[in-house]
Description:
single chain; alpha+beta; Arc Repressor Mutant, subunit A; Beta-Lactamase; 2 domains; six-stranded antiparallel β-sheet; two-stranded antiparallel sheet
Amino acid sequence: MSDAADTTSPRTHAGAPDARGASVILNAIQVMRCFSVETPLLGVTEIATRVGLHKSTVSRILATLEQEDLVERDSSTRRFKLGLGLIAVTGPLLADLDVRRAAYPVLQDLTERTGETTALMVWNGNQSVCVEQIVSPQQVKHTTPLGTRYNTALSSSVQIFLAQAGIDAARRMISEGAVILPDSTPAALDAYTDRLKDVSGHGVAVNYGETSAEEVGVAAPVFDHRGDLAACVMLAAPRFRISEEVLSTLTKACKRAASEVTVRLGGQPGA
């Protein structure tokens, strides 16, 4: 993309928004989305490669973001990472998530009873996003840091949201590539949609080492007072200590926790 995208003016003509100005905003968003739990530190060249922009353009974007504390430089590597200013931006949103407040004590109790990491996940249209987490006290554990996003169809939380969205919507998102199913052949897709029907019927989804050979995930839906799916409770644990018997126990505990959050939201379990 040309560096001309950095040139902005209030209007192009007769009240029409400046498309170049909008492009600058989109570029800045792309830059911030490059950072993740797996890659918290990135250099200018790395970011430029990921977003397809010239290094000089990325440098100017980062300089502006740094001024607003949205990114900052790591003191040892001088590479960039997300800044604490983002908390000021996202704080009001997180504080306004009633489901997050309702779920927090339930997640604490679930982690205490199971000894495993628990999380609250919400759906952004094609990804399951972690908005709360209680980390396992055990030395070996799996974590789901705030902001972690999943778009893999076999993820337990994604199964919950796709099951609620409906078979047609799920098939469409998979066919469009918005949600990733490793084997998307017609037979595999049919088997997956049958699986979603089971998830919907049983009110729980399991990912037993399907997205990561070392991890087990269990998720159950949370409904609000209108009966709409508001979120899901997810439990993550290392696979080596999850036998079939333990998995059954975790599944029941996860479903109970999700039902408790539902009740706290004024909903009916299994809505």
